[in-house]
Amino acid sequence: MNNLYNDPIGHWVVVVLAMAVVLFVLLTGTAYAVWMERVALGHIQRRPGPNRVGPWGLMQSAADGIKLAFKESFIPAETDRIIYVIAPMIAVAAAFLAWSVIPIGLWYNVQYWIADVNVGVLLIFAVSSLNVYAIVLGGYASNNKYSLLGGLRSAAQLISYEMAMGLSLVPTFMIVGSLRLRDIVDYTVHWGPYTGPIPLILLTPIGFVIYMISAVAETNRTPFDLPEAEQELIGGFLTEYSGLKFVMYYLAEYVNVITASALATLVFFGGWYLWFVPPVLAFFLKVVFFVFVYIWLRGTFPRLRYDMLMRLGWKVLLPLAIVNVIVTGVIIVLVQG
Amino acid sequence: MADEPKKADHENPSVLDDIGALAKGLKTTLGEYFSPQITTEYPEEKSPRSERYRGRHYLRRYDNGLERCIGCELCAAACPVGCILVIAAENSDENRVSPGERYAKTYEINMLRCIFCGYCEDACPVQAIVLGPEYELSDTSREKFIYTKEKLLEPLPPDVQARLDSKGK
């Protein structure tokens, strides 16, 4: 297998194959994330959720997808047509791009990822922050006051929480000394008799809490789903979108959820290491767990008011993240002498 | 007086209290997640109805097979939405449909109009019309919702018959 990676043509074959597989898995995974969300929310409310289409309702997302694909692709009057069409594409492209650098597992010397970039986390942040353009442009181009308000809220929210999110991971980078996700997963400690990879949450618990809160805000999910707050903004930036363009936003949202879960798995929970469980399966299980946490949060907490959201972002999470960085730095200096 | 410090705590909750509240919420929803569901899977299982449930109408017969309806049109008069049409005709010895002087030649109920109030049942002097328990009345065309006499004369469900018998009607 190593020969194949070193051969220039073989390398490209592997990369293109990996891209196809990741794309397929993500699309399927998104469909089942939607199914899982609806079933889990249903159980939280003591109802079964979708259970009619296929066994356990597993084909529900396929039915929804077909229904949405056959809807009229409606563009409202006086919209900025080009931006209106491009905005959902930006959302999807940005969401999928992040997966180009997410390592899924290392199993019998086979690399389950597309590319192993030495600034992987940075790239994920850069790409996931593109999502704000999709939402702002979509809200602006829709020629609808509610869409515009949703887009503006989203811009403010995403910019605020991106800072806390980025800073929440900095202690991890300081400890590991690398931005390469593979290095972070493979980070080994020598602690008494134990030598090997550890879940970094043991060293950066506060970073993890900040990351989880800001990741929920970054993906515009309840309790931070102000850009599409139904009660006050109809559907926010989604108001004027229907059919396949709506699907694109929806897809992007769920891919972002899976990406955020994958990043949490990689940075804080040891990636593909889980006792005896095969690496790729272990990664999958951890991601599913985090997706469930997202759904659990959605099923539990009511939406924050806008000023509370801003206060939490700027007055609580950001200072906490900065203090976390400083304290981690001090500890590292003290430990390493 | 003893409640005052408690109230002050509630007004100024500490961060730990807030986190505890969040954890309590998460615990509650997880508890609900694993509790039994309370959904009734409707087409397969149906929730119980009152024995006096007012569903679709039935016209009744006497035990000897004669129709009870005497064509008096009191039901049509009582109906608040005017969904009942009764056209009466005289009974004769050759053609005896009901025990009285007249019978209903035409008896139609427009089920799209009907509000299932049961006034027709109350108004009827011979207990000819009753409202049964069926509520799944959907159909494919408007014409099919005009229930004719033949359809209304279908035999009553046994439980409705038993209820009427117990009241001596």
Radius of gyration of chain A: 21 Å
Compute the number of helices of chain B. 6
Computed CA radius of gyration of chain B, to the nearest angstrom: 28 Å
- Here the CATH topology of the largest domain in chain B equals Alpha-Beta Plaits
User: Biggest chain pair contact, residues each?
Assistant: A-B, 12 and 15 residues
Helix/strand-derived category of chain B reads alpha+beta
> Helix coverage percent of residues of chain B?
25-40%
Distance between the termini of chain A: 42 Å
Beta-strand content estimate of chain A: under 5%
What percentage of amino acids of chain B are in beta strands?
5-15%
Provide the domain count of chain A.
1
Q: For the report, how would you describe the main beta sheet of chain A?
A: 2 strands, antiparallel
Helix content of chain A: 55-70%
CATH architecture of the largest domain in chain B: 2-Layer Sandwich
How many structural domains are formed by the residues of chain B? 2
Major β-sheet strand ordering of chain B: 2-3-5
CATH class category label of the largest domain in chain B: Alpha Beta
| Structural shape of chain A | globular
Q: Output mean pLDDT of chain A.
A: 84
Structural class determined from secondary elements of chain A: mainly alpha
Could you tell me how far the N terminus lies from the C terminus of chain B, measured between alpha carbons in angstroms? 65 Å
Task: Give an overview of the whole structure.
The complex is a heterodimer of chains A (about 325) and B (about 170). Chain A is mostly helical and about 325 residues long. Chain A is about 65% helix and about 5% strand. Chain A is built from 13 helices and four strands. Chain A has helices at about 1-5, 10-45, 60-70, 80-95, 120-130, 130-140, 145-175, 180-185, 205-220, 230-235, 245-270, 280-300, 305-335, and strands spanning about 105, 110, 190, 195. In chain A, helix 2 (about 10-45) runs parallel beside helix 12, helix 3 (about 60-70) crosses helix 11 (about 245-270) and helix 4 packs antiparallel against helix 6 (about 130-140). Chain A is globular and about 65 Å long. The N and C termini of chain A lie far apart (about 40 Å). Chain B folds into two domains: about 5-35; about 55-165, 2-Layer Sandwich (Alpha-Beta Plaits), CATH 3.30.70.3270. In chain B, strands 2-3-5 form a three-stranded antiparallel sheet. In chain B, about 15% of the residues are buried. The chains are: A mainly alpha (about 325), B alpha+beta (about 170). At the A-B interface, helix 2 and helix 12 of A face helix 2 of B.
